[in-house]
Amino acid sequence: MDMWPIVDLPSLASDVKRLQASADSDAGRIHQLERRVTQLTLACAALWQLVKKTSDLSEVDLQAAIDHALATNANIPGDMSPRPLFCPACDHKLPPNSTRCLYCGAAIPQQNHVA
Ligand SMILES: [Zn+2]
């Protein structure tokens, strides 16, 4: 007598095959993305070495530029960290949800605030 009369075994096997193929495909994509992140990290490090060699810019300047790029560009998928807030008049970094710039007193428009 069948112990599992309501289980459609061929359909279940097909589901398992489909899920395994999907998992294999995801693993391949993750591997490609990891390679890409490594390549981009190395490219950034190489560019920074060139910039340091040929300019007076410092690590502080680099960090400020990175902070500004993160604050002003499109959302990074999956990134839940709050965006730094910058004054639209003097470009100083400000505490989150500031309504006035601590440095120059300019009003901070509401759209600059982190949701
Ligand atoms: Zn300001």
What layout of secondary structure does this protein have?
Blueprint: H1 9-54, H2 59-72, E1 85-86, E2 93-94
Antiparallel strand pairs: 1-2
The structure holds zinc ion (ZN).
Radius of gyration: 25 Å
Are any ligands bound, and if so which?
zinc ion
Largest sheet: 2 strands, antiparallel
Averaged pLDDT? 84
Low-confidence stretches: none
Please indicate the count of domains. Answer: 2
Helices, by number, come to 2
Structural class: mainly alpha
What is the topology, as strand order, of the major beta sheet?
1-2
Strand residues, percent = under 5%
How far is the first residue's CA from the last residue's CA?
60 Å
Tertiary shape? elongated
How are helices and strands ordered from N to C? HHEE
Which percent range fits the helix content? 40-55%
Q: What is the number of beta strands?
A: 2
Overview of this protein structure:
This protein is mainly alpha-helical. It folds into 2 domains: 9-55; 58-115, no CATH class. Helices cover 52% and strands 3% of the residues. It is built from 2 helices and 2 strands; from the N terminus they run ααββ. The chain has helices at 9-54, 59-72, and strands spanning 85-86, 93-94. It has a two-stranded antiparallel sheet with strand order 1-2. A hairpin with a 6-residue loop joins β1 and β2 (93-94). It is elongated and about 80 Å long. It starts with 8 loop residues before the first helix and ends in a 21-residue tail after the last strand. The mean pLDDT is 84. It binds zinc ion.
